[in-house]
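Quick question about two entries, pasted in order.
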Amino acid sequence: MHLPPPSGTEYSFMTPFLRKVLSMNWLLIGSMLALAVFGVIAIDSCTYMQPSPAYLLMWRKQTVWIGISTVAFIGLSLLDYRWIRRGALPMYVAGIVFLILTLLIGVKKDGARCWLHLGPIQFQPAQFAVIAGVLMLALFLSQFRAIHPMLKLLAAGVIVAAPALLILIQPDFGEFAVWIPILFAMLFMARMPLRYLIAVAIIGTGSLPVMYFFKLKPYQRERIVAFADPEINPQGAAWAVNQTLIAVGSGRWSGKGFKAPDTRVEQGYVPRTTVPNDYIFAAIGEQWGFVGGSILIACFGLLLGTCFYIMSRARDLLGLLLCVGITTLIFTHVFQNIGMTIGIMPVTGVPLPLISYSGSFVLMIMFGLGLINSVWVHRVRD
């Protein structure tokens, strides 16, 4: 005698729900959480010697943000990514509004007005605006495939220019520069003719001198000069660059050890106020050495490689472009942050994803990775 299958709303709901949970990309989740946990350890290792209680609590605050971000990641993973067809524009407009509010009432730090207070929460709207811009650009390029390439290029330029120029006015050159590879990568994957991309690259390269002399603040120009010649002002703009190089080099093969005493970071040669954020890789290199730094980079490689694989399995152009934009965003931050620490990129103050102390940035990165995981979960067509 065969019993009839269970009936009712609970059975019909739980089956697809459990199917989505079991079909999530666990390699993506594992590499993401491994980086986030190591980030907490790294923050603790470079702040334990700080006299201020605010610094001593950083790793705990980061842990709380990771918990909140993980919940958001899971929720976005289970939600069909195609919701951005309705949600991208409101998020994009909100990002523009936040950037304008930052210019008007934002908190000014180190010569830049990049932070915004909303009650007890302080965050950088530029990071939210970049994610929202990626969503809006992916939606546009996937919905208007048939229009002339020139019109598509101009419209994409307008979508990017609005938040990018507001970010540059702050000025936050690091987050502004992140837009460049994102735009090119997404246009390329949207099959924009190569001649248009080459023309844009030539025009952009020609505008660099204008931006250098008329858009950058004096301290930003000094950073670029210090990158080109670290010996030109070793006690000024080149100080941080030289000290991070010494700190990473002093770690040698296996490092000085977790919370080791008498490190360059502990002694304050690397600016203590920026070590948990901009220069956290210097602390990692000094305490964990070449081995620790290489493992960290390999873990990022695993995360990005998984994102590329999910990209190749996307069900539609919208999912593909989402993966391209978010993966390029993460890669650019990783390359820029580690690059400025080891002297192959100028200092721009870009945080290291999932590692640097920045609660709102952790939330934005896990938000993006949740969308990528959603592309994987919903890769089978209805």
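Here is the second entry:
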Amino acid sequence: MDLTSTDLTITHHSTVTKDQIDHLGHMNVRFYGVNAYAGTTAIIGALGLPAAVTLRPVDVYTRHHREQMLGAPLVVRSGVIDVSADGLGLYHELANEDSGELAATFVQRVRCIEGAAEASALPASVVDRARSMVVAVPAHGATRSIALDTDPVASAPELSVLRERALAIRKPRAVTVEECGADGTLVWSNAPGLTWGGQPVDRKLPEMIHELPGGERMGWASMETRMTIRRLPRVGDRIQSFSAVLDLRDKTSYRIQWAYDIDRGDLLTTFEVVNLAFDITARKPMRIPDWIRKLELASQHADLAPGHAPGHAQ
């Protein structure tokens, strides 16, 4: 792989397949992430890490630029954007190879893990090699609504705050063997399931598709997401997820979700998402209908935004 200090390098190719198409008729957001992670794997593979050392994603931001449809040929272009003693900042962009249109951009933070514990530092040879790969983030790779200079982990609310406000979105459940690796720890790629896995609580949740009086079919299209990982649970740990709306605009809803180990009372992951009201038939943005806006406002808690949350979790 030929990385330079000035240019992004192609790290992955793929094609949108039928199993990647979701209820909105385009490639599901999960597969944008799969492509980006392939780019991360390629860069890590070029660093020559010792066998006992791995780099695990702990902060993953995605901005979606344009939907991709069945059969679209995709390319990932990647580079290192910063190097620290214990990890790296990475940038990826996903584009349609036929049209040249940008599909998504990604900013990721990976941290050094040695064996079962966090290493104090990357090997010097790896640091030197990574610094030779550093590139600048292009203007189109900038964030739009989700700030990356906040620390959602440090400012997460105490579990008791979320319970008092009745913000649970899933019932408590135990982490299963199927979600974990041979060492009994949750596999990193299953981290989003800490939020969405399990049984919904007994209250009204946003639907995947809304059938509107005028015949329109509205869904929520993710425009930006950011997942941060404090730690990964093990088999049998009891977890629960919670969610709040942080901001509501004419066409968008900005939410945050948290997953907690409910026996220890500590935070596992956070997940921020900016969703766009999307007219599935016309394939264009639309205004959030009043009755859906009312549902969103019922769980709005702007004071729980990263950097502002009361009763911080430890």
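Reply: DSSP finds five helices and 13 strands in the chain. Helices lie at 29-45, 124-131, 159-164, 193-196, 290-297. Hope that helps.
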